Predict the 3D structure of the following.
Amino acid sequence: ITVFVSGATGFIALHVVHDLLKAGYKVIGSGRSQEKNDGILKKFNNNPNLSMEIVKDIAAPNAFDDVFQKRGREIKVVLHIASPVHFKTTDFEKDLLIPAVNGTKSILEAIKKYAADTVEKVVITSSVAALANPIDIRNNSLILTEETWNKDTWESCQADAVAAYCGSKKFAEQAAWKFLEENQSSIKFTLSTINPGFVFGPQLFADSLKDGINSSSGIIARLVHSKTDEKFYNYSGPFIDVRDVSEAHLVAFENSECAGKRLVLSEDLFCSQEAVDILNEEFPQLKGKITTGEPGSGPSFLEKYSCRFDNSKTKKLLGFKFHNFRDCIVDTASQMLEVQGGA
Ligand code: NDP
């Protein structure tokens, strides 16, 4: 069975590629340049079951046509993971909303045009951001479930980059469900979405930490490298370990009961203060050298400044246990200290 993975060079996708190869699948990944693709092939020791194709910019019209024209007949499963995850822009439509939405539409159109008979399952990496905007993520009277939708409009989500990112995930996911509804007669695939909270955990390849870090890992890296008494933004909301996000991508297409479902991935609520407490407790070399904030105040902060969630349907469908926050943070920070040094 051959699985196509878009954005295969990213933090989450590399774990997915690794798990797919380990499980015996053939993988076709997409990356933005020959150089990036060659780098990935090398990291996987030129595994004969992995090949890479170039998709330079998912914002461009028909971005996936070439690769699906060339390889579509081989592909049975599509995991669409590519999407911009950064906040350094003021042109929210161009840099966040349009790539997310166009990328989702163009990969589905390419399947319809070139692989309608072969592709049986599509899994799209959406987000808890599609369930709640940044204000609602901190709203303690909101309960997120598999049915919840971010209430922002295309206009209101452009208040700032974080809200626009959340909007980009909402509108991309909505475009996918709409495509499915409107194209029932010309496609045969089922759709599932993966909606993770904040994703932490180790990089598949430690040296990814050397050349620019992905956004969610950056939240932990800044704490690991903080100074005594440094003020930090107390992020709060649902979290999940990247190794569980990866496994969920496999179960999403392997378990037919996941067809048509949104899988909300969250082990628990977290806040940055709790991460800081764990770093100070677990790493003697950091104690006294990094920020402490207000130790022990995490739970009361979450009471006030985090939404709740109920993802019991997802947990039942997935059927495996998620990594807890302490293990996730210890594994994340250990790798950072090893590669980047610190304290
Ligand atoms: P990364 O930034 O590591 O991965 C994003 C991937 O998408 C990269 O391979 C990137 O390529 C590619 N990409 C981005 N923009 C474009 C574009 N315009 N054209 C082509 N490729 C593009 O982030 P993550 O691994 O964290 O994110 C993966 C997915 O998971 C995303 O869909 C994200 O929204 C979702 N997600 C992530 C969460 C998190 O906390 N990390 C939480 C919930 C959902 P390149 O690096 O070359 O630009």
